[in-house]
Predict the structure.
Amino acid sequence: DVKVTQSSRYLVKRTGEKVFLECVQDMDHENMFWYRQDPGLGLRLIYFSYDVKMKEKGDIPEGYSVSREKKERFSLILESASTNQTSMYLCASNGGAPWDNEQFFGPGTRLTVL
Amino acid sequence: SQELEQSPQSLIVQEGKNLTINCTSSKTLYGLYWYKQKYGEGLIFLMMLQKGGEEKSHEKITAKLDEKKQQSSLHITASQPSHAGIYLCGAPRDQLIWGAGTKLIIKP
């Protein structure tokens, strides 16, 4: 079974803190994704990566950066957390064409920024 | 407005009843994913439809893509508490775009 794990299920941070969200997948997938999910808005793509050290901006990259130093790990970084980044963050991975194949999701990290 | 519109936004159904959730696009769909999300958790893949008129089933859940490929419906027969959650549709374009989700509550 594909497994995508995220470092924390719940996280509370203060405004201005640097926040790291980690995602690890065990299926040797080339593609990894970070989404945020807000009520009424569905999932919005923040960044995705199609290979080690490669990244592409999604719809809402502002205020975020990513790192993919190893194939299995994709990190989302909030450089200076703000209250409007309070959200559910979902990581996903897949192989092959990134938009034409099922994405496997982690359990999510619910981040609250105070 | 969302490129993919889901209706209804939320639904409360008596256990054992049937229900339908819709996902509508203003553009032709070249594929349509259905996922389910239990509250506060990640998404679980249900099925993908690609051809106009295609219909797929998984246990008591059936999804269909209409002939014009602009709408998909997801139908649950004899609903159970385990069906409760949020159902999301997603469509591949230059990336994957998502509907806002339909929240399903099953009343015992």
User: Anything to note?
Assistant: Chain A has no helices and eleven strands. Chain A has a mean pLDDT of 95.
